[in-house]
Amino acid sequence: MDLLAQQLINGLFIGSVYGLFAVGYTLVFGVLDILNLAHAAVFTLGGLLALWLVETGGLSIWLAFPVSVLCCGILGLLLDRVAFVPLRQRADSNFSGLISSIAMAIIFESAALGLFGARTVRFPAHTVPVHIWRWGGISITSLQVEIVAISLLLMVALTQFLNRARAGKAIRAVAENDRTSRLLGIHVDGIIAFTFFISSALGGAAGILFGLYFDSLSPDMGRSIELKGLAVIILGGMGSIPGAILGGLAFGLSEVLTVAITGTSNLRDAVAFTVLFAVLILRPSGLLGRKKMREA
Amino acid sequence: MEALCQFFAIYGSLVNFIGINALLALSLYLTMAAGQLSLGSAAFAGIGGYTAGILTMKLGVPFLLSVAAGSILSGLVGLIIGLPVLRLRGVFLAIATLSFGEVVRIAVLNLDITGGAQGLVGIPNLTKTWGIYLALAVAGYTIARLRHSRIGWCFESIREDETAASAMGINTTYYKTLSFVLGAILAGFAGGLYAHLNYIITPREFGFSVAVDLLIFNIVGGIRVWYGPVLGAVLLTALPEILRGTGVTAGPIRMALNGLILLLVILFLPNGLVSIFGRTGQEREKAPVDAVPEEG
Amino acid sequence: MFVHVKDVTRTFGGVKALDGISLAVKRGEVHGLIGPNGAGKTTLINVLSGIIAPSSGEVILDNSPVQTLPAYKLAARGVARTFQNIRLFPAMTCLENVIAGQHLVALRPFFPRLFCLPSAGRQEKEHRRQAMDCLARVGIESKAHFPARALSYGERRRLEIARALASRPRLLLLDEPVAGMRQQEVEQVGSLIQSLAAEGMTILLIEHNMSFVMGLCATITVLNFGRTLVTGNPNQVSRHPEVIEAYLGASENNA
After folding, report:
1. Interface pTM (ipTM) of the complex?
2. CATH T-level topology, domain A2-118+135-282
3. Cross-chain Cβ contact A114/B256 below 8 Å
């Protein structure tokens, strides 16, 4: 029983990182209707950059975190400028945008490989001081709590921003209809660039938290979360922020439960992808989605 | 003659690999010709490869028969998967086929008969270079003749505008499924040849990154004519060797170059490298486009 | 072809785009469909061509009910259409667009082509000739080898008609066939439609160009808010008080 409870709690922690990753992913999809497959590469670069700042730059993680998040945001601006702006007027911009984002993902990943090498690295010990709390058979570390707190904080902040702030409302307006938004005097291109900034910053933040949680970072760490992130945003409904958060948590839980029930980690991903496949076929708008996935 | 032998001694496996990749790229082209973006080709190659490998190795089935069996099984799976999945539009179809690919990969990883993560070891080395290129020639010729046949016109019409295609009498579901199944059959066939090339196949060789590579071959070569994907596969498979010849050995640079080529092609040559040579792309792209009034 | 629409309703998320429409079009008749924006004209064409299914009601073509058939099966029964927003195959040339449009009447089997049999070559030649005829009929044969996206707006509309004619339809649905055209082109399309009807083709068209509709159509149906306001000959329709109020009034507001 305790073991199950422990697993559920672990699922919640990792689920919140998935959620954070997926929120940024789905934000760009909601606005542009384009799947940005370079998101996972930004996630990787975020984690590695924070590590470099801590290890080589000697920065505290509390400073390295915001700095690398900011850098990832700038990377997002670059991504938009190089890979998406030139394609925007094209009739098949969904398709070509997908391809150019793959190209950028490869370039980013090769940059990570060139700058940090192919090996798996970890944050120096005591980067974040860790306390362990125990209740009976359940243990929670302060690091886990901090990860959940930061993830939830960022997600709540984003939701509030989209609902309240002027720029946030503009993002929602562009997501709804960019032509009308243009007529209303919204600077659509600026808003799209800004969306990329936020999205990539969140992706980078997720990368740092992921690296801290699993205590390992490598240039190809984005690969697995790329597919999981897709599963999360499909599950939650493309373009839906609450859906991405819930989807992330559900995904984290499903992973640990699969491991707990089958007793091996081999089938961990199988359940997730089977669910993803089933959702696409049976309920293609996801749990909370609004985007049309099938042709009318 | 001696020089040729020497060339083969050094580059024989590369030449084989180029042929296999060209076949796989053509299999994806068949599906893309009808406008369907699939990331499942690698998985179909895996189904064909493992089936054929297991048949020859464990049941002593003759080589050609087991390759054919793998190809047919792959086509059957394509039919079963294709029917529900092809209702999804663009990016969602890509995600659905991708998750199908992951499920296949995880299944192969966990089954006993496939040898798990170690792979299927000890497959007799029966595929000959001439066999691969004969298959490529037949596939290329058949696909070339498909253009301007009934099926070819249907594929092209659906790719250009699915609604208009159905309004002029094309059973779009049938032809989309056909393109998917034909692609799966060819991928399964290529997978079967590949399995009998190197004594061993592993699940990695049919994963997500291979699916993306096949897509890149198509985009870089060009998807408007059948030889585009072949050109893409040949160039990009040979590129690492060419780079090695010029002294570039670092992995990250090769990778970055791959990404850069893809980016430049999608930005500046939307119809791929073949549009440099042929009339098929460029000329048409450059034709003047006058402004279309907004709909009321 | 004889068209009979019986009490057809179509709702989109609670909104009734079509609300109990009934309509009859005789064989070889040019029937106009007019009404303000959002009246349900295009929805009706979509139902008749099978692009969308009606929520209730019957559509009868030559005595058989067809309301449940998908678009491609309706096309096989002889229905062809054009689209308000022009849906050509932009990367193909004009000739290729029309050849693609021959799908229902051209067999083009694969194996003779695969083995380069002479029959395949003869057939292809014949199909090209027929496609050129269709292009000539709408007056753009000189643009045969231009890509569709290089045409002017009016030429694209005419190419779309040529593609529809390639399947030798018995019912032709035209959604704003002369929108955005110059007067000379409008007249050309008008006489084309007349000659098609004279050959026995049934034509149902939506158009906002009043003089075009009044001069061409034998019967006109006016739709408003998804209902039939009035059906009659141009004379009756143009004098109907509700039409003047609903349609002409609305278009004044639009202008």
Report:
1. 0.92
2. ABC transporter involved in vitamin B12 uptake, BtuC (1.10.3470)
3. yes
